[in-house]
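#struct-queue
[09:14] JT: dropping the first one here, sequence first, then the structure tokens:
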Amino acid sequence: MEAVSGSNEEDATSSWDEQYNVNFMPSEIFIKFRTQIQSFRLGLNLELYNAPINEYQAKLVLKPLALERKWKIMYEPLHQDVRLVSKKIPITKFLNLQVGIGHNFQLKATGWKWKLTTCLGGDGVSRIRNKTSIGLCPGVDFRFGWRADFVLPEFTGGVGTGEQLFNMDSGRLQASLDRVEAIFTNGS
């Protein structure tokens, strides 16, 4: 019996646990404290990174409360880094651009960065990245950042072509809970 193109012996020998895997251990845990000062939001972010190495960062974030806000300022005291960052600017429905300028007081260096982001993946694997928020009570919110990489199942077959009458590639799913944020907002 001949295998259909797109499936291989490696897929046939892999277990369901390898093809369908969901990881609930977050690699990032954020605790955010926010307060409103006039028409601005001031926040203190405590960021704990679990993987690939254990790391800790603290950030002070200042941004306007207006719906059409275009920027935010971030200061990282441990790295002595200050940045002015634009909000994500939609280029297309699934593509965003973000730009920023920053200064590192320790290195006495100024520079700028840009970043193109999307919620979709490529290379034959589709990716969904999303954030889900849950309001526990007034002033306390939880936000979960999750990701799912998947290849949809594929059904193929043929008669008189040397292919199997019916073949199924069961697809793959690798999902993970990447980030958990606890957000505490002081009402004014």
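[09:21] JT: and here's the second one, same format:
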Amino acid sequence: MPHSQQPSIPNRLKDQVGKQPPVIKVDLTGKTICVLGANTGIGFQTCKHFATMNPGRIILACRSEAKGREAVQRLSTETGYTKGELWIIDLANFESVKRFATQFEQDGGRLDILICNAAIEPGKYVSTQDGWESTLQVNYISTSFAALLLLPTLLRTANDYRTVSRLVFVSSELHYDVIIEEDARANRGSILRTLSNEKYLKKASRMRQQYSVTKLLNVFFARALTAQLSPSAPVVVNAVAPGFTVSELRRDLAGAFGAMVKVLEKLLAISAEEASRRYIWAAVGPADTRGLYINRCEVKPASDFVIRGDGPKVQQDVWVETMTVLARLDPRINATAERYLSS
């Protein structure tokens, strides 16, 4: 068996506590940036960095109008940037995702960089009104839905302005620690439904690993979408790990596990600003990152499960199922697939 390329636990800890790479700066004059989950934490810090690069617009995509408006004001106050805009999207609601995409179509403007940052980690089973487990819907299904609905705008922008757009999915180092279990893989065509099933998630404390599984799925999707796009398509799709970060993401974790995570945060976590530097690198750094996994502002190997053995087959099965699920939600998915994707 080939030697594993994924980092050891000691090396991951060393990367976590070591000096973090600096933020890179480029000229974004005239460009439009959209960050999902932009009102707090890493998403907001990412907007602050972008604001120093003179973009034409920064769209702060948030679930809460009140918190979003506060974030737009903070961005202006803390950076002097006055072209921030609040757009509402709730990834726990497919209709909200569709309205968000329609708003882009009606706006008619450009979209150069999309950062899919929004995520949740409730630590317990919660069903959305759409009938999916909430972590899976927010972190993976709706994130992929939004990305595909906005893909035509990313491509149109690149063609109209003779540039290359960026689509950045936020993954995690935690994707190294999980796989798609064989009993979920056995339900080919229903892997996502299995991963959303409350009874399945109750077995072997799988709910505790659900966040990590969704981050694995984000890596799969970035790789699968890249494989479906023409190699010459003017959009770079990648997946970035922010590192273990002080964040409101884990605010709902309770009990002994929640207490342990809080202790680890104090000992090991980097700041949201430091983590946001990795997003910036994925969004404006080297263009030879198509379909790749990024950590600490450089390309890193994805997990052994992703790149070896059954991983590529599972990736394809999940891709097909994802496209089937999303196509049922909105006819624009099939239109995008027929025009821009290979199958």
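[09:30] RK: nice, looked through the second one.
[09:31] RK: DSSP finds 14 helices and eight strands in the chain.
[09:31] JT: good to know. The beta strands are 32-36, 57-62, 84-88, 113-116, 165-170, 235-241, 293-295, 298-300.
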